[in-house]
Amino acid sequence: MSAAPSLKERLRGVSLIFACGTALFSDGYGNGIIGSVLKRIYGTTAFPANYSTTLNSVVFAGTIVGMLTFGWISDKLGRKFGMMTAAGIVSFFSLLSAASSGANHSIRGLLAMLITCRFFLGVGIGAEYPCGSVSCSEQTEGKSIAKNAQHRWFALATNCMIDLAFVVSAFVPLVLFWIFGEHHLRAAWRLSLGLGFIPAILVFVWRLSMEEPEIYKKSSMKAVKIPYMLVLRRYGLRLAAISITWFIYDFITYFGIYSSTIVDTITGGDSSLTTVFGWNVVINLFYMPGTIIGAFVIDYLGPKWTMITGLLFQAFFGFIMSGLYEQYVFSHSVFVIYGIFLCFGEFGPGNNLGLLASKSSPTAVRGQFYGVAAAIGKIGAFVGTWGELRMLLFAFAFSKHGSDKGNTGPFWVGSGLAILSALITFFFIAPLDHDGMAKEDLAFREYLEANGFDTAGMGFADGTETTTSSIPEEMNEKEQPVE
């Protein structure tokens, strides 16, 4: 029986989890900061139509490239190498974005510079998913982490950080506007972008002394050719189910008609920066109770059932909002129901998709499995940002032109998709156990060996190979971690 970990060991274990996961703050901040201020600095007629959508889409494209490319890098070159590179990219291009936005370019030159910077910023953000988030999940099953807190720490270090970043990305421009005033919006815009450098560089420094996760050292295929056909045969259905549910979640989350419709309703169309940013802060704050409360539920219900619960409640409140929207269109009741709708989105899929993606696959291909699922999710976000016109046309079919009921179409569709996602989760996604990664690695080795694959070269802990027979002893070891 091993001794219970000391307080110092427990704190170090939690610190490693957050060092790996909190870089996703850059994802929420980068996606949240780009929109509102730019058109007020340069004027709504200075840019081509849909410029903000174009900039957001460029970030999504870079993010998808980063997810897919660094998924392979994470598995074959190492988690730490991928994480350090990702943090460096985000740091550099956050500063470059701020510098280019203040340079003396023509409007089209400025837009071209921002598009370039935002693409590579997206690559760095995307790289964090298969590198930082995957390493974070592996750190949660370390000996210093209590079994009944493994899922909790992952959610707090990843999705909670993204949601907090959405709040900060709405609050920072508001504060800078208060400081600089309406006659110095260029300074507010440059600082809003440039401040994204701070969390990225802090994470970079935080990671300098890290080592590869122990489970990666023992079960990676860094020096072995990965048998992709065998992997797909065993994990293809899991990957497809998680990817589809992630697509649906991101489609709902990034579909801009929701918040813009609600803000316009509450403010009566007020275009004041203070009013718009203030209400955006309030709306984004609804994410926080969902992700925080959900994080403390996951270890008891499990990721699968927590996700289903969140999706069904999200659909329930979405249908309520759809049915009552026209009746309470000028009431704050719609705003509150919408906030609860967002809250359960984070309670369910927001917290649990990353867990399911990282812990449903073996260590040897975890980065690529996670990267593919997250990339398909980002495609959903891309479709959501560009689907606004189509959704408005769909909403038009609900009522005559000019009726408030015409705005309910997106809410009906979003709620229906939440139910579809819950059904996919119920039928096609397996529950996750605590310490499930070690069990999955063992099952994967046995599967490979049963299909004639030599697993002797897997792992590199202490420069030695690990074998199947060495794993059960470690899995059966009694531990007494303290929360």
UniProtKB/TrEMBL annotation:
Q: Which GO terms describe its cellular component?
A: plasma membrane
Residue ranges annotated as transmembrane are 54-74, 81-99, 153-181, 187-208, 235-257, 277-298, 305-324, 330-348, 369-389, 409-430
Q: Name one GO molecular function term.
A: carboxylic acid transmembrane transporter activity
Where does the record place it?
A: Membrane
What membrane topology is given?
A: Multi-pass membrane protein
UniProt-annotated stretches for the region Disordered: 463-483
Give all residue intervals belonging to the Major facilitator superfamily (MFS) profile domain. 16-433
UniProtKB keywords? Membrane, Transmembrane, Transmembrane helix, Transport
> What protein name applies here?
MFS Git1p-related glycerophosphoinositol and glycerophosphocholine permease
- Organism of provenance: Mycena pura
